[in-house]
Specification:
Elements (H helix, E strand, L loop, with lengths): L31 H9 L5 H15 L14 E3 L2 E9 L13 E2 L7 E2 L4 E2 L9 E7 L15 E7 H7 L4 E2 H7 L8 H15 L9
Parallel strand pairs: 2-6
Antiparallel strand pairs: 1-2, 3-8, 4-5, 6-7
Protein name: Restriction endonuclease
Organism: Candidatus Microbacterium phytovorans
């Protein structure tokens, strides 16, 4: 009887110190800042706008931790897992009219350490969801670096479980949460997470 093939060992990824931007490439006249300008200089692009929204939420909470691409949530504050979703009326491409504000990807698959694979069912993986919208409707006034141009909705996980949806529009977000300013985020997130800690053990939809 032949022996069962051995499973390959995992290759651990070491922590990498954050870059400053002035680090030079080897073999080409460029720095990391040049790469950042090349890849993320337009903050209207969907992926970059999402990163910016995560950054703003983290800063509103006083967190200086760096985002982890593969985590089940975007920001960890105290013991609160926070998912951030972004939307905007204006895009980086020509539009006939401003886009409808919609926040997608609220549920996702989770990685299982035991099964070594992704879950078959999607779940809500964070305790609190922050929906961030750039409200500017004119490119002449578009300034994503101005936090007053953003509005935020803070929704506890329990409310999304009741809906059971993967995405919601602004009208639903406004029904679940008041429109919040940047300086109101920390208090709203703390309040939204308060019932989560007491009810998490009884939540059948909670990812494990």
């Amino acid at each position: 009887m032949s022996e069962a093939p051995q499973q390959p060992e995992w290759i651990p990824a070491p922590e990498v110190p954050p870059l400053c931007g002035d680090e030079p490439f080897v073999g080409v006249s460029a720095t990391v800042a040049d790469f950042w300008r090349f890849a993320m200089s337009d903050l209207r692009v969907n992926n970059t706008r999402g990163y910016l929204a995560e950054f703003l939420v983290a800063r509103a909470l006083g967190s200086s931790a760096h985002r982890v691409e593969w985590d089940d949530y975007d920001v960890l504050w105290r013991d609160i897992k926070i998912e951030v979703k972004a939307s905007a009326y204006l895009q980086a491409w020509p539009q006939r009219a401003p886009s409808q504000l919609r926040f997608t990807g609220l549920r996702g698959h989770s990685w299982g350490d035991i099964t070594q694979g992704m879950s078959t069912e999607k779940t809500y993986k964070a305790d609190v969801y922050v929906l961030a919208a750039l409200t500017t409707t004119s490119h002449a006034d578009y300034d994503p670096l101005d936090v007053s141009a953003w509005e935020f909705f803070v929704i506890p996980r329990s409310k999304l479980i009741e809906l059971g949806v993967d995405s919601i529009g602004r009208s639903t977000a406004a029904r679940l949460s008041p429109s919040l300013r940047f300086d109101q985020l920390a208090e709203a997130i703390a309040n939204a997470a308060a019932p989560a800690s007491s009810s998490a053990a009884d939540d059948p939809d909670r990812a494990t």
